[in-house]
C-alpha cells in the first residue's frame, strides 16, 4: 500500500495557526513562570490562591458530587506545558502551563465545573479563568471562582446562563509541581555516565490528568487535544500524536514542539514526555495511514545496548494480529513505546505513546531470563490490545473497568501467541488468570465483576477497581464466553462493536448486544439463553460454582464455591448464586458434546460411566468453575494420571491439582485425596502442572514451615522432584546449558529451586559455587540468566553480610532493569534479621529503593519466614507514611496489605489484624479496604482448616516419605 508519509493540508494550516500563537504562548508561559518565581511556591494546592468555601457535608450541590453534571461537553483542548528540569529558586521542580478548552453547552446552566488538582491557577481580574463565547456568542461574566478541594473541582459560577447548543472557550494559566510522585505530570531521575538526569513524564489514569491541566476528567468526556511542549534544545518531546512542527527559540535556548491534533479521546489517555532518550524505529504498513512509524524509546545506554530490539521486533506482528482480530485498522499514524525509570504500574496504554516500566519493555539477551522476555511480550500485547479496546472505544465510567482490563488481559495471550507461536501462551492463562481469580473470588468478601455506576465515585474507589477480579476474573470469564460462542463469532461481534462506538464510549451491555447479533447471524451456534442472560449471571454476582459430577448416576449439580464452608454470604444475588454453566467434557479418550447446566442440578445420562471409564469435566479449562466428582471417578482419574498422564490434556492435569487442593481447603474433599494428586508428578515434565502444584505446595509451606509437618513435607517433595532435577541435569549437560523449549526452561527453574529448597543432593553445592565464582570475579557473571533469581536467593539466604553486601553492590550497579529486580528480590532472602530490618528502612529512601519498587520490596521481605513479622511491624509502625503515599491513589497499596499478611494463619495473627483494622478505622484503608477484608477472611479460614487437617497432613507426608 505504501502511501508514504505526508502532512495533510489541514494539518499544515493548523500548524501555521499554532505557530502564530507560539510567541504569545512563550511569553505567557514565561510570565506565569516569573510570577510564580517571585511567590512562595512551596505549597501547590488548589487552595493557595483562594480560600475554599466550606460546604456542609449533606449539601446536594453539583460540586459536592464526584461525577460531573451533564450540562457541558468538551470539544477540544489547546494545552501548552513547559516542564522545568532544574530546580527553581525555592528548590522545587515545577511546570508552567496554559490551557484552553472549547466546550459546548448541552443543558442551560450558570455553573462550570472542571477538574483541577494541585494546580496553582493564575488570577484574571480576581478569577481563576477567563471565559469567552464562540461564533459571536457573548459569554456571561464570571461571578466567582473557587476550589472544591475534596472533589478536585475548579468551580466557576456565572452571572448569567450558558446557552444550549453554543460553544465557549475557557482559558487558564497555571503552575504545578513536577514532583517525583508518579502521578499526573511528574519527574523521573536516573544516573547516566555519573551524571544525574531528569525527565518529565505523565501517568494520567485514572484521575491524574487534572493534576497536569484543568480538564473534564471523566473517560466518557472525550475531546481532541492539541498539545504543545516547551523544552530545552537538547531534549525531545513526545505526546500522543505526531509532532508536526519544532520551533527553536534562540534567545532562550528552548524549543517548542507542536503536536498534531489527536483523535477524539479520553483525558486519562493523554501523555507527554520530555527527555533526552534515544529511539529505534521501524515502519509498519497500516491500511489506514500507509506507513506508520513504530518507535521504541529508552535511556540512551539501554538503546545503544540493544535492549529495545526485542520490543520493536514483536510490536509489528502484534499490531498485525490485532488489526485482523478486531477487523479494524490501527487507528493512529504512529506508535511510540517508551521505557521509564520511574513508573508506578507495569505499563500504561496512552494512545500512541505507551509508557512502560523498564522491566516491561527492555530485554537484554545476555542478562534477561526467558521469563522476562515473556513478560515483555504479554505486556506489549496487553497495551497494544487497548489501542482499540479501551482507547478507540472507551467504557463510559470506571464501574465497567473490568471489561477494559479483563478484555486486554484475555487477548494479551492471543497477541503474544501470534508473535511467539512456540511458547504455549494460550494455555498459560489458567495459571495467571483463572487460578489467580479463583483464589480471591472464593471469599465472601469478593465482589461482582460489574459494579453499579453509583457505587464507584471517589479516586480511591476507582483505584480499587484495578484488582484481580477486574483483570483476572474478567479475562477468564471473557475467555469462557469466546469459547462457547466460538472465536469467529466472538471476533465478529467484537469488530462490529468497535465500528459502532469508534471514538465514542459504551457500557458493557453494548458489547453483549453485538455478540448476540453475531450469534443470531451464525446458523451453527445455538445458545440456551441470550448472551445477556448468560453473562449477567457471571458478571453481576460474585463468585463461581463448583460443579459436581456423579458418574454413578450421571447427575450434575452446582454450588457457590466458598473457601470457608460455613461462611455467611451477606451480599444478596438476584440470581441466587446459580449460573448458566457451559461444560465441555470428555470420557476416557473421547471428547463429548458440550452441555449446559442451567439449574441447580440435572441428570445428564451420558455422564454415567462404567467402572473402567472416567469423566473429565471442564475440558481444556475453558470454563470459570471448579469440578468435583464422586470418589470412584476421582480414583479412576488418579490411576489414569499414574499409568499414562498424557491422555489428560496438560491444562486439565494442572486444574485437577488446583481443584483438588482447593476443594480440600474448603473441606469438600479429604486433604489426602488432594495430596495424592501430586504423586504422579514423578513422571510429569510439563511446566503448567508443575507450576500449579508448586503454588499449592507453597501454600502448604507457609502454613507448615513453623511446625513439625515441615520436615516430613520436605522429605516427600525431595523424593518427588529428584527425577525432574536429574532429568534437567542430563538434558542441560550438568546444568551448563538450558532446555531448548520455552516452557521447559520454566520447568527447569522449578526443578532447580525446589531441589535446592528440599535439599536434593548436589543442588545447593551447584548454586552456591556459581555465586561464589561470581563474587570472586564480579565483572564476569556466568550464571545463566534464567537461573539467576534462584541462585541469588539461595546464596544470599545461605550466606551472611558479605553475600548481602555483594548483592547490594551489584544491584546498585545494574544497568539492566530485569537484573536489578532479580537482585532486589534476592536481597530479601537473607535470614539475618538486622539486614532485613535495614533493607526495610531502605524502602523509605528513594535514593536506595525507587518509590515504584518500595511496596514490592516489602512484599519480597514478607514472603521470607524471618522477614514476615519484621515487615508487618514495619508497615504498622510507618502506616501514616505508606497511607499518605499510596493509600488513596495507588493500586499497589492493596498488594502491600495482602503481601504483609499473606502468611497469617494463627489466632494471634488474626487478632493482630483485627486490632489493626480497629486502630485505623478512622482514616480507613483507602484502596486497600478490600485487601484487608480478604486478609481477615483468609486467616480465619486457615485457622479453622489447620485445626482439622494438620494431623492427617502430617501422617500422610510421614507415610509417603518413609
Ligand atoms: N491501564 C493499565 C495501567 C494502570 C493500572 C493504570 C492501574 C492505572 C492504575 C494497563 O493497561 C495495565 O493493565 N497494566 C498492567 C500490565 C498488564 C500486562 C496486566 C500493569 O500495570 O500491571
Ligand atoms: Zn490494561
Structure description:
Homodimer. Its cofactor is Zn(2+). It is a single-pass type II membrane protein. It comes from Sinocyclocheilus anshuiensis. There is one protein chain. The protein is α+β, with helices and mostly antiparallel strands and 962 residues long. Among the domains are: 8-276, Immunoglobulin-like (Sandwich); 424-486 and 525-672, Immunoglobulin-like. It is built from 28 helices and 31 strands. Residues 1-20 and 40-51 have low confidence and may be disordered. The structure holds ligand BES and zinc ion (ZN). The site of ligand BES has 17 residues, from β19, α4 and α5.
CATH superfamily of one domain: tricorn interacting facor f3 domain
Overall shape: it is globular
Q: Give the rounded overall mean pLDDT.
A: 93
CATH class (first level) name of one domain? Mainly Beta
Uncertain stretches: 1-20, 40-51
Alpha-carbon Rg, integer: 29 Å
Distance, first to last CA: 70 Å
Brief write-up:
The protein is an alpha+beta fold and about 950 residues long. The chain is about 40% helix and about 20% strand. It is globular and about 85 Å long.
